[in-house]
């Protein structure tokens, strides 16, 4: 203890030889950071402590992980690492000069810590001083730096390299994702086939499996195919990759990411996201005019300032003096550059008790059993974020007594107002081409991405995402045979269409549109915005109405036919998430937002949407899979279709044609609605009249014996192969057992959508034990916890009454999900609170009618 006293005391000195002798036992554990090593010298791995915090930050000289004062002992006990670099930034008020001005009083002219200057401090009035020490555990020996002459050369080099290392988040905050990408070697010489393919602005689906999400447009031949699960966290069967292997066409762009500023491009050959400097030309080849989008987007911004500002003012409650809120549950989150979508979703997530218990309630256990690198562990980072938001440690109001004391001591202790989720965002978006970027994203997509990660990273026996999960019963009816099929699927969000035709202020909207066009033509200021007022009951009615099934194949007719689908709740979740489908694409490919006001209710009853199952008198469609058409040339997947002789009610066709609709469109309407009459066909026309091929001649694919035999052969190959592991993981994440997932995929030729239908239609799977499955179960035991409470009956659900109360909503401002800003409103302790990034205030006028995503909690019966 005498040696420890020498280091703690300021008067005593230790000889250089003694310092070297002291450090000799620890030299093998001291590393010099190399290129590629991540040095976490700005943020604790378990908390939001930093060198600005009162206790500073300890950086391990071996792993380069940073730890606050509360967590350094845990790392020492777990790893046995003894040598840490302690970093501390002091903030002091400058001493006024004789003339009243501030005089510099900086002992260290160089600030060697890569930290931001606090935005709430005026740099003209305060000065900063960085301090570094070597600390040796467990006795907390301290060696002040710089101490070059007395320290061994390796230690000096390691300290200098660590102090000069850049923050691993610097690019995340200051640079965009695109700047880190490299231009593809294929971009300049890419060959595009002149095959006449034109891509519509909406209605996309995979040409091989009919999936409608995670779709990629191949820039060589215009194929629209689904990606793999790992591309963006959404489901996919990997058909885009299969297409590349068959054709060698290297580049694809993700549909839905195309904006005037660029798009997400992936190179299958280079196996990474890339830049395509010629993306505008490549997209124009398929009818997507990005340059026109740029001009129009600028025009909208320049000419439509007033309506956009109005929306921003209303949602952010601008012009109203809002009272700041402090304490547990009222902690803001810093915007890292278009990361407000993440901030809004996480504030809503951690207002839910089940997530609070799962992560914050289990925080000691999660931290104690975290891996050696906790920055790369999902549960650790979730617990860290939850504690940061709920502890109140980073949301303290300024106290007058503290301010007086700080002035007397000349030292400023910065208040921790909010947290910066840099480490959380870096981990949760890793490998994701959209969320890892610095561009604005869709909050709904991020919510589903987060739920997927929660499902795949179980914490304890209870999965908090169970509160969102519900079953949807889909009733599909063949319009010609009248037979039906009932299937169930898992979902987490109720997507509510906007019933624009039910607007209650149509006359005002028409008048406003006329004035707006006149003002644009005359280059006058735009009139005051008139927002469409949509009754909520009309949106709910639109959700419950039947919808047409495109390319429906009737197993009763053994051919394509018209089909309609109706969705109902087979179970009601504990927490109901409702998304208002405000975003769409115009015919010019410009992303558009429906700027509407919907009278969302505080209390919601959807009990009438409870599924009823097969009804008396209904006849089920035969359980026969459609034949698989195998083209002779894989490049010919968009081959010519053949017109069959069709039985069409010509009288209904003529009735529609007399209304002024194109004749071919009328024929399709009558055919696809099963000759049920002109009225039903008219509804089909209204729903499809904006589609690019609306007036094209009616064509249907012909299914021959060759296709059937080819399908059988393909099926035989599929049954012999082990299903792709990512597909198995997707089904497991929904709560099903692993052997059931593999059995379903094998039975459906590895088609994910059909595999889910197979599971629901086979409630009692065969109890066969495959030795290979048992081996794989042992190798993939990571999912043991998530499957612990799951039986063969299906996914875990928390069914109950369909009556709910609103407790939160996320609002979006801007013209599309690719731009703008998100804000979250939550009801806490009997009042509404607005979470606008770092700003957390009591809400005076919560704009419940302008929300994008709504959160409801079930009312106990």
User: How far is the N terminus from the C terminus?
Assistant: 65 Å
Using the CA coordinates, give the radius of gyration. 31 Å
Shape: globular
Number of helices: 28
Descriptive terms for the model:
28 helices, 861 residues, eight-stranded mixed β-sheet
Structural notes for this entry:
The structure is a single chain. Helix content is 31%, strand content 17%. With 861 residues, it is α+β, with helices and mostly antiparallel strands. The strands form eight sheets. Strands 15, 21, 25, 26, 27, 28, 29 and 30 form an eight-stranded mixed β-sheet that branches. The protein has a five-stranded antiparallel β-sheet with strand order 2-1-3-6-7, with helices on one face. It starts with a helix and ends with a strand. Helix 25 (725-733) crosses helix 26 (738-747). Mean pLDDT is 79; it is low at 1-16, 98-110, 171-179, 230-234, 293-309, 633-645, 701-720 and 765-792. This is Ubiquitin carboxyl-terminal hydrolase. Residues 331-859 form the USP domain. It catalyses: Thiol-dependent hydrolysis of ester, thioester, amide, peptide and isopeptide bonds formed by the C-terminal Gly of ubiquitin (a 76-residue protein attached to proteins as an intracellular targeting signal).
């Amino acid at each position: 203890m005498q040696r420890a006293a020498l280091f703690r005391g300021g008067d005593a000195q230790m000889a250089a030889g003694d310092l070297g002798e002291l450090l000799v036992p620890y030299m093998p554990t001291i590393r010099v950071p190399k290129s590629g090593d991540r040095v976490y010298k700005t943020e604790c791995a378990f908390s939001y402590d930093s060198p600005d915090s009162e206790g500073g930050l300890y950086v391990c000289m071996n792993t380069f992980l940073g730890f606050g004062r509360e967590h350094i002992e845990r790392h020492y006990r777990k790893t046995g690492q003894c040598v840490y670099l302690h970093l501390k930034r002091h903030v002091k008020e400058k001493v006024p000069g004789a003339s009243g001005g501030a005089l510099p009083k900086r002992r260290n002219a160089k600030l060697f810590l890569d930290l931001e200057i606090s935005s709430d401090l005026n740099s003209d009035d305060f000065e900063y001083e960085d301090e570094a020490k070597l600390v040796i555990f467990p006795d907390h020996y301290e060696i002040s730096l710089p101490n070059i002459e007395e320290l061994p050369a390796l230690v000096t080099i390691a300290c200098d390299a660590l102090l000069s290392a850049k923050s691993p988040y610097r690019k995340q905050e200051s640079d965009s994702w695109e700047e880190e990408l490299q231009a593809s070697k294929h971009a300049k010489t890419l060959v595009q086939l002149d095959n006449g393919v034109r891509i519509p602005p909406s209605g996309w689906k995979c040409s091989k499996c009919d999936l409608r999400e995670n779709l990629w447009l191949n820039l060589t031949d215009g194929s629209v195919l689904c990606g793999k699960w790992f591309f963006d966290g959404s489901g996919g069967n990997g058909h885009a990759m299969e297409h590349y292997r068959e054709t060698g066409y290297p580049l694809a762009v993700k549909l839905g990411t195309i904006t005037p500023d660029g798009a997400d491009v992936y190179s299958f050959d280079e196996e990474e996201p890339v830049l395509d400097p010629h993306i505008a030309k490549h997209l124009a080849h398929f009818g997507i005019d990005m340059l026109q989008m740029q001009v129009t987007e600028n025009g909208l911004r320049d000419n439509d300032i007033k309506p956009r500002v109005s929306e921003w003012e209303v949602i952010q409650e601008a012009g109203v003096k809002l009272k700041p809120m402090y304490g547990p549950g009222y902690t803001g989150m810093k915007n890292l550059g278009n990361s407000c979508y993440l901030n809004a979703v996480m504030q809503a997530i951690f207002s839910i008790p089940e997530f609070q218990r799962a992560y914050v309630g289990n925080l000691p256990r999660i931290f104690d059993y975290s891996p050696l690198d906790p920055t790369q562990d999902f549960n650790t980072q979730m617990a860290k974020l939850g504690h940061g938001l709920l502890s109140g440690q980073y949301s303290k109001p300024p106290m007058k007594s503290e301010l007086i004391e700080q002035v007397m001591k000349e030292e400023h202790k910065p208040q921790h107002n909010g947290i910066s989720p840099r480490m959380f965002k870096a981990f949760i978006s890793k490998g994701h081409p959209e969320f890892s970027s610095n561009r604005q994203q869709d909050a709904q997509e991020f919510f589903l991405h987060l739920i997927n990660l929660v499902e795949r990273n179980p914490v304890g026996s209870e999965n908090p995402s169970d509160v969102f999960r519900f079953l949807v019963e889909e009733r599909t009816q063949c319009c010609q045979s009248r037979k039906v099929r009932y299937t169930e699927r898992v979902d987490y969000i109720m997507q509510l269409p906007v019933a624009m035709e039910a607007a209650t202020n149509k006359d005002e909207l028409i008048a406003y549109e006329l004035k707006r066009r006149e003002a644009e033509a005359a280059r006058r200021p735009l009139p005051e915005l008139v927002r469409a007022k949509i009754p909520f009951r009309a949106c709910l009615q639109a959700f419950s109405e039947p919808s047409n099934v495109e390319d429906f194949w009737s197993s009763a007719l053994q051919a394509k036919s018209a089909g309609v689908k109706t969705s109902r709740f087979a179970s009601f979740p504990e927490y109901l998430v409702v998304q208002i489908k405000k975003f769409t694409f115009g015919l010019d490919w410009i992303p558009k937002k429906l700027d509407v006001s919907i009278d969302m209710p505080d209390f919601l009853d959807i009990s009438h949407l409870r599924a009823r199952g097969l009804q008396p008198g209904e006849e089920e469609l035969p359980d026969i899979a459609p034949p698989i058409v195998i083209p002779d040339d894989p490049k010919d997947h968009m081959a010519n279709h053949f017109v069959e002789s069709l039985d069409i009610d010509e009288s209904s066709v003529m009735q529609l044609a007399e209304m002024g609709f194109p004749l071919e469109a009328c024929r399709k309407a009558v055919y696809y609605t099963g000759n049920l009459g002109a009225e039903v066909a008219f509804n089909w026309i209204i729903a499809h009249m904006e589609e690019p091929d609306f007036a094209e001649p009616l064509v249907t694919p012909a299914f021959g014996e060759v296709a059937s035999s080819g399908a059988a052969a393909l099926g035989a190959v599929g049954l012999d192969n082990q299903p792709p592991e990512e597909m198995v993981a997707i089904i497991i994440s929904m709560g099903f057992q692993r052997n059931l997932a593999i059995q379903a995929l094998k039975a459906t030729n590895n088609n994910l959508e059909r595999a889910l239908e197979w599971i629901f239609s086979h409630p009692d799977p065969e109890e066969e034990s495959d030795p290979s499955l048992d081996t794989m179960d042992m190798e993939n035991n990571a999912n043991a916890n998530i499957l612990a409470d799951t039986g063969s009956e299906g996914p875990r659900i928390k069914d109950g009454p369909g009556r709910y109360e609103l407790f939160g909503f996320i609002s979006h401002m801007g013209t599309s999900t690719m731009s703008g800003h998100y804000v979250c409103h939550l009801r806490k302790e009997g009042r509404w609170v607005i979470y606008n990034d770092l700003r957390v205030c009591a809400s005076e006028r919560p704009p419940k009618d302008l929300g994008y995503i709504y959160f409801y909690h079930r009312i106990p019966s």
